[in-house]
Amino acid sequence: MNFLIEENRNLAPYCSMKAGGNAKYLVQPKSVSELCEAVAYFRSRDEKYIVVGNCSNLLFPDSGYDGAVIITCGIRGISYENGVITAHCGDSLSSLARVACENSRAGLEFCYGIPGTVGGGVYMNAGAYGGELSQYFIRGSFIDKNGEIVVIENNDMDFGYRHSRLNYEELILLSAEFSSVEGDRDAVRARMEELMAKRKASQPLEYPSCGSAFKRPAGHYAGALIEQCGLKGTSVGGAQVSVKHAGFVINTGNATATDVTELLSLVSDTVFNETGVRLEPEIRIIK
Fold it and tell me: Is residue 177 flagged as an active site residue?
């Protein structure tokens, strides 16, 4: 066995919300081969498992996870050739944007500052400021439910708003190819810096959070609806609707996962009762 299994590890330090319980097992593979071996190991033992990136958009319960949590952040390596950027599942989305910039390629600037990995980004079709990964995803290599490595093209990914085929099918991204267009390096860098400045000015980056707490409802903005309902600053335990950006739920210092989920429910119910619009969590809540 070429990977390390740790037992009864606290997950909160690994999650951007800094909340949640312990994992029965924790594995942090450093290569695609180690990831494939780890998945095969737990499958062969009928052990519950989940493959995640840097846990920037998910929340484990306070009771923990009764299985193996496989964190892929150590599986990295980005290359560029002929307009195509190839990235591994553990590479950060910011790194994807930086490599594009270094090679004078445009289009992926929106990725800069998204606090997720390529694997998590493809899973949820991450996006910001008018861009989505599905616009640039060409194809990816995945482990399928049979343990085989398969290649899936963009047209077969069922991409939608914060959605992909990975949401409902047992597929684990290993690496992906992304397209880009020729650009001016200085202009691309300036756009990246502009978007980062917008994030810092408008988002509560100084607190632990999972980013946008709710998906954007059709015809509306979640943050605007939450603010309209007077919910800025509303708290449950240590979880709070940010006073800086109502679309964010933050950990003010001692929030539990239960605090967060109860606040999400309170906000969703209040907005629905007052506006008729039902907000759905963008945070992936693990059972």
Answer: no
Element (H, E) at 24: strand 22-27
Q: What is the 3-state secondary structure (H, E, C) of 46-66?
A: CCCEEEECCCCCEECCCCCEE
Among residues 34, 132, 177, 282, the one annotated as catalytic is 282
Q: How many domains does the chain have?
A: 3
For residue 192, is it within any domain? no
In the set 98, 139, 162, 189, the catalytic residue is 162
Phi-psi label, residue 167: left if phi above 0, alpha if psi -120 to 50, beta otherwise: alpha
Cβ proximity of 5 and 25 under 8 Å = yes
Task: Judge if 92 and 122 occupy the same domain.
Answer: yes
- Residues 282 and 212 sit within 8 Å (Cβ to Cβ): yes
Kindly state whether residue 256 falls inside one of the protein's structural domains: yes
Please give the model's pTM, rounded to 2 decimal places.
0.95
**Chain segment 189-247, per-residue pLDDT in tens:** 999 999 999 999 999 999 999 999 999 999 999 999 999 999 999 999 999 999 999 99
Answer whether residue 228 is part of any domain: yes
Is 282 a known active-site residue? yes
Question: How many angstroms separate the CA atoms of 164 and 154, rounded?
Answer: 10
- 162 part of the active site: yes
